[in-house]
Amino acid sequence: MDGAAASLRRLGSAGLHPTPERIKLGGLEISKVEPNRISGRDLVGRPQPVPIKDQGQGRPTESPFGLSTPKQTPVHRIKGVYPDRSPLPTVGGGEGVGIVHSVGSAVKALSPGDLVIRFPYIQGSWQTYIVQEQSMWHKIDKSTPIEYAATVSVNPVSALRMLDEFVTLKPGDSIVQNGATSITGQCIIQLARLRGIHSINIIRDKPGSDEVKERLMKLGPDKVFTEKELDVKRAKMFLGDISEPILGLNCVGGNAATLVVKFLKQGGTMVTYEGMSKEPVTVSTSYFIFKDITLKGFWLQEWKLDQAKYRDWIDYLLALARAGKLKYDIILMHPTKRLLNDFHTALEKAMGKQGSRGKQVLKF
Fold it and tell me: What's the superkingdom here (predicted)?
């Protein structure tokens, strides 16, 4: 990444991370990278390789990286919003799917042609090839829709974990969430429905909200409201015969988070996993004193990521996708000769600069 990388390198050497004033994402360029030199058991780092380090003679697996997703997380890393500040310059991208190209002599679990995904939150998927030790890769069923394989490792896994980790939910219970149009929100709706759990969903007030509601209702939620519709003193009257939610999920902050808290039952828990509005979460003292509300946070990167369990979660979610029981909005980009233009378009959509859009997936 020529010009952008130079700017990032200068900022990194100064101990700074770029802000929108320091570097414009629209200036990112894609360029070839010289291969790394290897010795012994080191990883091979070609300009563009995918998995697997040899445990014997230092010869790894290489896989052309098939699909990767431009999203806000790498951009937040560039801006220094996240606490895990990678050394700069760096290659972005934390999820994707690839096909094994070649393997080292000690690699037995994977073979050329296998479809694989990476362990999450390892940067570097925005390249044609990656080389890594075999434990960092997970083989998946080749009948898996490729766009779901490329996007399963963060948002769907987060949805699954948040439904399991904070409260004990049983059939007939209910949850409430804002940001229901997000990929995580769409997954929460469907995973809850499969377990017999009711979901109350809050979306932002934007033009076309009726169409958004209609689209979400096809996923099986019990209720979908705009924030404005809930701007009343007794929002719980909208629940009807649905029980008060024991779990609330917040990815917006500000007033949208307050609405989630209003719905919670006595002793309920709200989990915050994102702050898309960049507004603080403000909760009235009375909710703590009289309703014993609990507030918690969730960040998948730091959340008990046992590799064996993670593989089970991936297999479970992709089985649902293959069965048509887990769906979410995806827009597949085919960069071909217009790679840079499509990349910039996808990045703008991922950052919400072109309204509510599906998840952007770039095919390399």
Answer: Eukaryota
Residue 208 φ then ψ, to 5°: 85, 15
Element (H, E) at 200: strand 198-203
Residue 148 is a catalytic residue: no
The C-alpha atoms of residue 51 and residue 99 are separated, in whole angstroms, by 9
Which among 82, 121, 287, 316 is annotated as catalytic?
82
Residue written as token pair 């445990």? 55
Q: At what angle do helices 155-165 and 307-322 cross, to 10 degrees?
A: 110
What confidence tens digit (pLDDT) does each residue in 63-100 have?
444 555 555 555 666 666 666 666 666 777 778 888 88
Question: What does DSSP assign to residue 172?
Answer: T
Give the span between the Cα atoms of 196 and 40, in whole angstroms. 54
Angle formed by the axes of helices 183-194 and 155-165, nearest 10° = 50
Contact status, residue 58 vs residue 121, Cβ threshold 8 Å: no
Q: Enter the tokens of residue 139.
A: 């083989």
| pLDDT at 107 exceeding the cut of 70 | yes
- Reading the block at residue 69, the tokens are 């997703």
